[in-house]
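Why does residue order matter? Because the sequence determines the fold. Keep that principle in mind as you read this record.
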Amino acid sequence: RRRRNPELDESQYETDYTTAVESGDERDQDQWASLYPPITSDGARQKYKQEFDTDLKRYKQLCAEMDGVNDRLNQLSKQLDSISEDSPQYQDVAEEYNRLKDLKRSPDYQTKKLETKTLRNKLFHIKRMVSDYDKV
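Structure:
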């Protein structure tokens, strides 16, 4: 049985890891439309919902990981502003700050950043397909 108000609001979990409209977004939308066409049955709706739930968990995990790195960078930046450059602590804080900056440039981090963007687009598309089906 179809529900009128799907509980998919969790997909609105926003982060700073995506940008507005980028050149690849239209191509991504076409890709998602071919992989996840409009829903025509309750069974298909359930499959979309299951995939959504699985991907949402991964998306939130990635966001939390990247948020942790960004939060720590902000914390270290504030510490650097408040510590004398001559102090022994300054060097330790600066080293950790630089290590995290390097981490953000690493291929692994960039891959996770791209995966986050891809998952966000996929979740948005699936949510729209479920919502459109529920309107019928």
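The CA atoms of residues 6 and 131 lie 7 Å apart.
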